[in-house]
Design a protein that fits this description.
heterodimer; A: 430 residues; alpha/beta; Rossmann fold; de novo design (two linked rop proteins); 2 domains; 5-stranded mixed beta sheet; 4-stranded parallel beta sheet; 15 helices; 9 strands; 13% strand; globular; B: 80 residues; alpha+beta; Alpha-Beta Plaits; 3-stranded antiparallel beta sheet; two-stranded antiparallel ribbon; metal ion binding (chain A)
Chain lengths: 430, 80
């Protein structure tokens, strides 16, 4: 399925795949679901029973966060509910991962599943406010969501206040402490932890932050129960998950697959590779390169992103460009991130496009060791992971580039879509 | 009585003054940009006084010394 929601399909062309849960309505009708249709399909969200039973049901369902962290959602919900004083819920629709479109797609196609999940989580956590955070760069989407929220208020189906916010769309602005910091009137930059948002978040209140896809799953678990949820996926990784597939595959777009699907199987959902692949980027700019042939058992991890890299592309150039972007996106608060990530990016640029000497790989190894665990957030850790996986998976290319200079594909157009690598100005963080 | 303790660095606060590496070279070095590299977070009783001095010397209070994980875990048990 393509994430372009204007695509019209004739009803008879549509088959609803077995794995489609969140996207069931889209496959059934070929259009975004409005409130009337949502209520006709699912009925109202069972907010009355949420307070006592929802955290338990989500915990038994084994739902793990779909924003990339993978933390058990039920446990997080229970912890927030167990803390003193009224809580706050944040629905995180920021999706700053450049290769991901799943949250945008979900919010476009089934906004009311996400809103149901957020409102249910609020009822379960003892919160009276839901903050739905979306990127300022997607203002049309924000306006549609605000209309959807208004429609629900008029229908009187939400017992809590839901507010839609448009935040700066920088890579680290989707981090949960950045959302809390912005909602508290500060810049959308990550803050050191502890305190984590569940301890002290918006207005110093215990705050439940969840990715919008996670919340949509919560809305379905509240209706159909944990046993139903576990019918998809594996016992260790139950349920379905959205994944954005791009690169050298037949039909790039957003797909819903069983959680823990092997990478090859996930790619097959999009019609499979169109050319011979050398590697697959799993988890996006914060993920790792996986070598092809793929380990048949290796599940697709990370924030639901797979990019198929064809053999005639240069993995080092792709990685160098991604690292340059990550370097530009440092919040410039922590020295090792502010100086370390751009340094690693520069080293990679030299490796991909320059005349790297043998000392370069040694310096890169040393610098990569200095990034993990040395920031308020995990930005340096993610950049180091991407770089390290590239050095490993493309090790033959590294040797060739060091010996002979850039390969014949180093200057080709990139497979990865890299956003503008310009560091945000100070005022752009608010 | 002295306890085992653990060092941590708030990198958002740290400006790379480097005093910690001067005062506690047994545990802290500096990277090529002048920011501290924690070689080992654990501080045995023999080093506690030096560690406290390093913590006190940091102009931006970015270096912290906390008691061992075991004691911390008990204190931080979730409230119900």
């Amino acid at each position: 399925m393509n994430h372009d929601t204007t695509t019209a399909f004739a009803a008879e062309d549509l088959r609803v795949p077995n794995s489609a849960r969140l996207l069931h309505g889209w496959f059934a009708t070929g259009r975004a679901t409005d409130l009337a249709e949502h209520l006709a399909r699912y009925g109202p969200a069972p907010v009355g029973t949420a307070r006592s039973t929802l955290a338990d049901a989500v915990e038994r369902a084994g739902l793990a966060g779909r924003g990339g962290g993978g933390f058990p959602t039920g446990r997080k919900l229970r912890t927030v509910a167990g803390r003193r004083g009224p809580a706050v819920v944040i629905a995180n629709g920021m999706e700053s991962e450049p290769a991901s479109r799943k949250d945008e797609t979900l919010l476009s196609l089934v906004p009311h599943l996400v809103l149901d999940g957020a409102v249910l989580a609020a009822a379960a956590a003892g919160a009276n406010t839901v903050h739905l955070c979306v990127p300022r760069t997607r203002d049309e989407q924000a306006q549609r969501l605000a209309l959807a929220v208004d429609e629900r208020q008029h229908a009187g189906i939400d017992p809590v206040e839901v507010r839609v916010h448009m935040l700066p769309h920088h890579f680290v602005s989707s981090e949960e402490t950045a959302l809390v910091n912005w909602l508290n009137g500060g810049p959308a930059r990550p803050r050191p932890t502890p305190p984590r948002p569940f301890e002290k978040g918006v207005g110093k209140r215990p705050t439940f932050v969840a990715n919008v896809e996670t919340l949509a799953h919560v809305a379905l678990i509240a209706r159909y129960g944990p046993d139903w949820f576990r019918e998809a996926g594996s016992p260790q990784t139950p349920g379905t998950t959205l994944v954005t597939l791009s690169g050298a595959i037949a039909s790039p777009g957003v797909y819903e697959v069983p959680m823990g699907s092997p990478v090859g199987q996930a790619l097959a959902a999009a019609g499979g590779p169109t050319r011979r692949l050398s590697a697959v980027l799993a988890g996006g700019f914060f993920g790792s390169w996986l070598p092809v042939p793929l380990d048949p058992a290796a599940p697709a991890r990370g924030a639901g992103v797979l990019v198929a890299l064809p053999e005639d592309a240069c993995g080092l150039a792709e990685t160098a460009a991604a690292l340059a972007y990550l370097g530009s996106q440092s919040a410039r608060q922590c020295g090792p991130c502010r100086f370390g990530v751009p340094s690693v990016a520069d080293d990679f640029a030299e490796l991909a496009w320059g005349q790297p000497g043998p000392a370069l790989t040694e310096r890169l190894d040393r610098r990569l060791g200095l990034l993990p665990g040395r920031g308020a957030c995990r930005h340096p850790d993610g950049a180091a992971r991407l770089a390290a996986s590239a050095l490993q998976v493309f090790s033959d290319d590294v040797q060739r580039h060091v010996r002979y200079g850039p390969c014949s594909h180093a200057r080709d157009p990139l497979v990865l879509a890299i956003p503008d690598a310009r560091p945000p100005a100070e005022e752009e963080w608010r | 009585m002295k306890h085992e303790a653990e060092l941590s660095i708030d990198f958002a606060a740290c400006d790379g003054h480097g005093l910690c590496a001067e005062l506690l070279p047994e545990r802290i070095g500096l990277d090529e940009w002048g920011y501290p590299v924690l070689r080992d977070a654990a501080v045995p009783p023999a080093l506690t006084d030096h560690a406290r001095r390093a913590v006190a010397a940091c102009p931006v209070l970015a270096l912290r010394l906390t008691r061992t994980a075991r004691r911390k875990a008990r204190r931080a048990a979730p409230r119900r």
